[in-house]
């Protein structure tokens, strides 16, 4: 796609959102993964927009992804735009489409992006239901949302990924977890394309490469945010043990059930993190 065409599509989508929420200027963007979308329901004075109402905004076909953009205030003061669900490459979208929603959030003026996901645990020290702060990632999905012509108005041709997950945000996440009494693991997230789950051999390979958790999302969104100069924090919910680490067959039902079970802890951590993030510096 021509870069000018991408910018015009972004403009049209942004204008629709601003018409629906006039004067609203979000400071933080949230991408809420499988089973984690309930947090958006805690936002006050909220305006909800179905993805279907937004031109070129891709729609999720996965259970556990509501497919709504919610704009509102966290605890009355911090303006937040939250995505209840995301799209994935395996749904048949092109790389630029997978990154498009994140570009829209960045165009709305966010200063920080919080990405969340459901992930399989590779680190044998992790348990189902643990939360993991993402410290770095491995892009093994076989695609990159920046492939194609680059528009310098959006970001540089070769964005630096040395600190894809902001160290300052990571320190705040640690402090927020400690304040709330939430056990917070830390580790590297590996992204594969899906939709099939990984084989035990692939999990052994990923462990050898340094991965602590694995999933089918998040990385393209982080790449786009880095391209557009927006800092990122990442949280994975370990919803299942990866292939070969338990006798149980992998299923999306297990992912959804675990996410639902831990949503209270997840909501508490995310709420505290946003409050801490919103404090004056």
Describe this structure as you would to a colleague:
- There is one protein chain.
- With 281 residues, the protein is an alpha/beta fold.
- Helices cover 32% and strands 24% of the residues.
- It contains six helices and nine strands.
- Strands 5-8-7-6-9 form a five-stranded mixed β-barrel.
- Helix 3 links the parallel strand 6 and strand 7.
- The longest helix is centred in the last third of the chain and has 26 residues.
- It is globular and about 50 Å long.
- The model has no long low-confidence stretch (mean pLDDT 92).
What's a quick, concise take on this entry?
This protein is an alpha/beta fold and 281 residues long. The chain has six helices and nine strands; from the N terminus they run αββββαββαβαβαβα. It has a five-stranded mixed barrel with strand order 5-8-7-6-9.
Note the topology.
Elements: H1 3-20, E1 28-32, E2 44-50, E3 68-74, E4 78-84, H2 95-107, E5 112-121, E6 131-139, H3 167-180, E7 184-191, H4 200-209, E8 213-215, H5 219-227, E9 231-241, H6 252-277
Parallel strand pairs: 1-4, 1-5, 5-9, 6-7, 7-8
Antiparallel strand pairs: 2-3, 3-4, 5-8, 6-9
